[in-house]
Amino acid sequence: MSFDVAVIGAGPGGYVCAFRAAQLGLKVALVEKRATLGGTCLNVGCIPSKALLASSEHFAFNRHHAAAHGIKLDGLAIDVPVMLKKKEDIVAKMTGGLTALAKARKVTVITGTASFVSPTEVQVVGDAAPSPRSLTAKHFVIATGSAPVELPFLKFDGKTVVSSDHAIAFTEVPGRLVVVGGGAIGLELGSVWARLGADVTVVEFLPQIAGTADADVVRAFTRILQKQGLKIEVNAKVTGLKSAPGGAGAPSPRSILTAERDGKPLEFEADKVLVSVGRRPFTDGLGLEKAGVELTDKKRIKVDGHLRTSAKNIWAIGDVVDGPMLAHKAEEDGAAVAEWIAGKAGHINWDLMPAIIYTDPEIATVGLGEDAAKAKGIAVNVGKFNFAANARAHANDSADGFVKIIADAKSDKILGAQILGKNAGELISEVVTHMEYGGSAEDLGRTIHAHPTMSEAVKEAGLAVSKSAIHAL
Questions:
Q1: What gap in Å lies between CA 274 and CA 178, rounded to an integer?
Q2: What is the spatial distance between Cα 9 and Cα 316, in angstroms, rounded to a whole number?
Q3: Counting runs of H as helices and runs of E as strands, what totals does the chain give?
Q4: How far apart are CA 250 and CA 414, in angstroms?
Q5: For 42-54, b where at least 16 C-beta lie within 10 A, e where not — what string?
Q6: Is 0.85 surpassed by the pTM of this model?
């Protein structure tokens, strides 16, 4: 079989690349080892975790807030198998939709694992066709994504020590869940099971959770999570897992996660230990050396500014190349590569890649934060507006958090934004749009926003850069 473009991996980057290439008139193959399209994101990552977040938010609202709205509930309970089925139904619907789109766009989907035998040929082996099939193409796009990082002293066993793949499929609420890593995945899944009744402790090696968000955002965020019942342990280096004898009423051995802080030992009892310390590029078994594709020191595929590898007819996108491991980043990479292959002017602005932690409230960031700008010696003006001054936020039980706009002190050009609040991931998009066109904080503040909406807080934060906020001093 011969194609213009063969895309290896059908996650958000891969399928978008394939679909866009087909739109541009190219003959396209899409090779995927799973039986369904969508990759990690749709099958065991972004989408199933958001389904669980939504279900658990409904439960938390009914448990903690419904009475204040005059809603009386008796016998509130969680049915985990039904919740998991809801998640699985959503995944099935979305993967089925991708299959239909591939068929409609005449993309040839090949199920199996691909490995290069030369820069212009791969062999594909799959359950349906155990004998290798040869596939040649003028261009290949590597979009094989990433896999969870496994700690050498905390190997995944799927029972006690688990990855995010396991944590979206617990058949019952764990009594004690210890989350190793205070990034997006750990905080999101920790929140899911905490809302449903688990005793959750987040153990983070760094001085703060939530990655590179500004310190004031993280302080407020940490307080909110603690009010929700999560225990947050920072500056804690995990050292291992041990067993201890069961106590009265608990004859079986207990699992204890060991850690240390400032040389002092820490111990956390756990029924489950979710290790979420990051992801690694997944290039296992691709035979890159046979294709002449080079790796960086960090084991990511080396590419130029147009995502072309050291083999000129092979491209790489998404998690296997440098940059944030985000589904929407992979999508943008994929669309641009398809356009470059077709001789079009593809475009990506990697500096304006929003990042979101989908807890409640959410954290959404884009561009430079205040702390990062100051560390680089960039003079900035900052506008901040609290949701506590927004009427719609109060009506939505969402008055926690704030919007923060960071603008260049001389030009007023928006350099970045950070939002802590309900649906922050939706609110950040308009800031990204203003930044894409080089907009200023004044442009943002003078943009009309409907009332009453939570997005008015974004407008007010834009005005606050010049100390012109209307609804705050």
A1: 6
A2: 11
A3: 14, 22
A4: 57
A5: bbbbbbbbebbbb
A6: yes
Which CATH number is 161-275's, of 3.40.50.300, 3.50.50.60, 1.10.10.10, 3.10.20.340? Answer: 3.50.50.60
User: Could you tell me the CA-to-CA distances from 337 to 277, 321, 436 in Å, in that order?
Assistant: 30, 13, 20
Q: What is the pLDDT of residues 163-210, one digit of tens each?
A: 999 999 999 999 999 999 999 999 999 999 999 999 999 999 999 999
Q: For residues 298 and 259, what is the distance between their CA atoms, to the nearest angstrom?
A: 27
Give the model confidence (pLDDT) of 316-367 as tens digits.
Answer: 999 999 999 999 999 999 999 999 999 999 999 999 999 999 999 999 999 9
pLDDT value at position 172?
97
Q: Provide the residue type at 226 as one letter.
A: Q
- pLDDT (tens digit per residue) in 411-437: 999 999 999 999 999 999 999 999 999
What CATH number does the domain located at 361-464 have? 3.30.390.30
Structure tokens at 455: 């997005």
Strands, E, within 166-219: which ranges? 176-180, 199-203
Token pair, residue 458, equals 């974004």
* Identical fold between 2-148+280-351 and 161-275: yes
- How sure is the predictor about 132, in pLDDT bands with cuts at 50, 70 and 90? confident
The first and second tokens of residue 265, run together, are 């030992």
CATH number of 2-148+280-351: 3.50.50.60
Q: What is the DSSP letter of 34?
A: S
**Active centre residues (catalytic):** 451
Residue ranges of the domains in the chain? 2-148+280-351, 161-275, 361-464
Give helix 12-23 / helix 80-104 axis angle, nearest 10°.
Answer: 20
What amino acid occupies position 283?
T
What is the dihedral angle through the alpha carbons of 429, 345, 10, 122, rounded to the nearest 10 degrees?
Answer: -160
From residue 10, how far is each of 57, 69, 161, 270, 327 by CA, in Å? 30, 44, 28, 36, 12
d(CA 18, CA 25): 11
Helix (H, G, I), strand (E, B) or coil at 123: strand
Instruction: Report pLDDT digits (tens) over 50-107.
Output: 999 999 999 999 999 999 999 999 999 999 999 999 999 999 999 999 999 999 999 9
Q: What is the pLDDT of residue 250?
A: 56
Q: How many CA atoms lie within 13 A of 208 on its CB side?
A: 14
CA angle centred on 279, ends 274 and 282, rounded to 5° = 130
Q: Rounded mean pLDDT of the chain?
A: 96
